């Protein structure tokens, strides 16, 4: 029997987006806290931040610090990373950071892990000072990190303090089948980045489920997909508001990564046909429209994927309209 939207949870992915007109990152952080508090009131399950670097529209680079700020300003919603890019860090450091967060905010912290650098090669080098943070070491690093967060081992030579015994839920994030297979083999929950890398969504979900082995972490597969959603009073209004998001995505193609701009009336005056095709391919899983429109399209997405949870990314220039959009989206899901 197929899953219904009103029977599955919904969560939020945030990048602490810097918009045109901000004079620093501070307003982005303040908006993120307000959005998280609003999402909590609406019954969203999680509020995650993604680690990116050297992007003028993204302020969530110091992900664990921002998680602490938002967890401290909320009461019940789970706050976490979607994700921490593990090749940029030592597993012990991440275990200590998230062990600290879990000790401060018990049963509310999630640790989503990615194996990409979350930036360009030059910035990757600046982050690590060398390139030994090899993505090929990712499986070993994940297992090492799980060990630091797990039960206390009296004979362990290296302990995460804080960290040990916190059992912070670890998720693997991916945009391909690699992390899907690893998540299945380790018995971890899996989240797919279909909001910007849609191509391998179905293959990754199939791989995850077929490789899943029950574990101390999870008895059965649990898959989440992240998609772009903008809800408004009408389909036309939602499409207009989405032009801010399209301009942001276009900046990735042009390597011109500016703060989120206000919407425009005609994207065809900005992008070429080739750029339009590229942006539309990258953002294929974008659901824009009125409540009725996105309800139907999101239900079809769940029918096609059978995911256990949806995470939404919503890039809107106007904070009030973003809060309104989050309210409409929440009304479609299980937010009890």
From TrEMBL:
One Pfam family hit: Bac_luciferase
Stored SUPFAM superfamilies: Bacterial luciferase-like
Superkingdom of source: Bacteria
Residue span, Luciferase-like domain: 20-300
Coiled coil: none
Protein family membership: To bacterial alkanal monooxygenase alpha and beta chains.
Protein name per UniProt: LLM class flavin-dependent oxidoreductase
Source species of the chain: Sediminibacterium roseum
């Amino acid at each position: 029997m197929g899953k219904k939207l009103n029977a599955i949870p919904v969560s939020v992915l945030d990048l602490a987006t810097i918009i045109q007109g901000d004079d620093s990152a501070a307003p982005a952080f303040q908006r993120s806290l307000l959005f998280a508090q609003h999402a909590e009131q609406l019954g969203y399950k999680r509020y995650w931040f993604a680690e990116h670097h050297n992007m003028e529209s993204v302020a969530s680079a110091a992900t664990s610090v921002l998680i602490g700020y938002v967890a401290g300003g909320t009461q019940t919603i789970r706050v976490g990373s979607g994700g921490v890019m593990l090749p940029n860090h030592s597993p012990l450091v991440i275990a200590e950071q998230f062990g600290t967060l879990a000790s401060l905010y018990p049963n509310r912290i999630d640790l989503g892990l990615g194996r990409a650098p979350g930036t360009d090669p030059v910035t990757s080098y600046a982050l690590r000072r060398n390139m030994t943070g090899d993505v090929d070491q990712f499986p070993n690093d994940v297992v090492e990190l799980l060990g630091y967060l797990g039960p206390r081992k009296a004979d362990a030579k290296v302990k995460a303090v804080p960290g040990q015994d916190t059992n912070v839920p670890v998720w693997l994030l991916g945009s391909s089948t690699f992390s899907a297979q690893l998540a299945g083999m380790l018995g971890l929950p899996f989240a797919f980045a279909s909001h910007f890398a849609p191509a391998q969504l179905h293959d990754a979900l199939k791989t995850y489920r077929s490789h899943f082995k029950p574990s101390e972490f999870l008895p059965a597969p649990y898959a989440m997909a992240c998609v772009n959603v903008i809800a408004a009073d009408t389909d036309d209004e939602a499409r207009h508001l989405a032009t801010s998001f399209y301009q942001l995505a276009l900046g990735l193609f042009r390597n011109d990564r500016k703060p989120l701009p206000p919407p425009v009336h005609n994207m065809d005056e900005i992008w070429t046909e080739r750029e339009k095709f590229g942006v539309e391919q990258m953002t294929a899983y974008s659901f824009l429209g009125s409540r009725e429109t996105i309800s139907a399209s999101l239900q079809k997405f769940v029918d096609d994927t059978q995911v256990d949870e949806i995470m939404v990314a919503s890039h809107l220039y106007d904070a009030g309209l973003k809060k309104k959009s989050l309210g409409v989206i929440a009304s479609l899901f299980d937010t009890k």
